[in-house]
Amino acid sequence: MKIKNCKLKIGAQKGVTSLATMLVLGAVVVQIGLVAFILSYYLTSSNAGVKFSSYALSAAQAGIDEGIVRTVRGDYTNAVQFSVIGAGGATVQVTICKGTTSGCNPDVSGSAFANKVQIVSSASVLNKKSFLVALVDVDPTTHLVRIESVIEKDTL
After folding, report:
1. CB of 123 within 8 A of CB of 60?
2. What whole-number distance in Å separates Cα of residue 75 and Cα of residue 97?
3. What is the pLDDT of residue 26?
4. Structural domain tally of the chain?
5. What stretch of H or E contains 123?
6. How many Cα atoms occupy the beta-carbon half-sphere of 132 within 13 Å?
7. Is 11 exposed, middle or buried (0-12, 13-18, 19+ CB in 10 A)?
């Protein structure tokens, strides 16, 4: 009987050692996996920020294009504001404002800008925002529409 009990004790000690070894190795593997996950998250999120920022800029440009189309059609007599939901979850706010309309941006007010139309487009994708301002000249006799400038701004 004593020999059998002695063999069981030796076998139990080997099991305890192998269990501790497995726990340590398991913890090391979990740590390596956690570090790999955190690194891949930071690399992906920085690329996603650039991607969402470019989505917001292209959505704002689409808003400017839509504003120009409405200006060509003659839909600019008063301050017009409309929203567009773009591809990729972009939300676009566009304001078309004639130069002499009150409430227009001060950059485009006064008699010198009587034939000018300002189109302001602000787009947002998740937490990234982009603002574009276009200045369009409309000839009152020929109704020719010329784009004078499209400027990206940091804030409105």
Report:
1. yes
2. 10
3. 93
4. 1
5. strand 116-125
6. 25
7. exposed
6-65 pLDDT per residue, tens: 554 555 566 677 888 889 999 999 999 999 998 888 767 777 778 888 889 999 999 999
Residue with tokens 């007599």: 77
pLDDT tens string 130-142? 999 999 988 878 8
For tokens 């020999």, the residue is 3
Structural domain boundaries, residue 12: 2-153
Q: Is 4 helix (H, G, I), strand (E, B) or coil?
A: helix
Beta bridge partners of 95: 81, 120
Q: Tell me if the pTM is above 0.70.
A: no
What percent of the chain shows pLDDT beyond 90?
23
Cα distances (Å, whole numbers) of residue 147 to 74, 104, 112, 127:
15, 18, 17, 30
pLDDT at 1 over 50: no
Torsion of CA 35, 41, 43, 47, to 10 degrees: 180
Which residue type is seen at 80?
V
Provide the residue type at 25 as one letter: L
